[in-house]
Amino acid sequence: MIRHICMFSLKQDNKESNIAEFLRRGQELSQLPSIQAAQVVRCASGVPNANYDVALIFDFNTLDDLNAYQVSPEHVAFGQFVGDVRIDRACIDYEI
To answer: In 3D, which of 74, 75, 84 has the Cα closest to residue 6?
Structure first.
C-alpha cells in the first residue's frame, strides 16, 4: 500500500474561503475508487504559523494506482484550483 501525503500553505487573500473550498473539493476527490482510505484535513487552530494549512492523506493499493490518480481529470482539476491559491506545497509517497 502507498500513502500519499500532500500539504499546502495557502495565500492570505480569501484564506478561510479557500480552506473551505479545498476541504470540499478534497472530499469529492477522496471518493475516487482508486483511493482506499482518505483524510482531508486542515491545521488545528493555535499551532505555529510555520505549519501547512491543509493536507490530503490518501492511501492507494499500488504505485500504479497512485500514478493513474495523478493524471486523472479529477486530480488535474483539483491541482488547477490549488495552484491558484497556494504559496507552498510538500509531498511524500511511502509504503505502509
So the answer is: 75
pTM of the full predicted structure? 0.92
> Mean pLDDT in the chain?
95
DSSP calls for 12-64: STTHHHHHHHHHHHHHHHTTSTTEEEEEEEEPPTTS-TTS-SEEEEEEESSHH
Q: Which residue, among 39, 42, 35, 41, has the nearest Cα to 2 in the 3D structure?
A: 35
Nearest to 23 by CA among 55, 70, 69, 57: 55
How far is 52 from 30, CA to CA, in rounded Å? 20
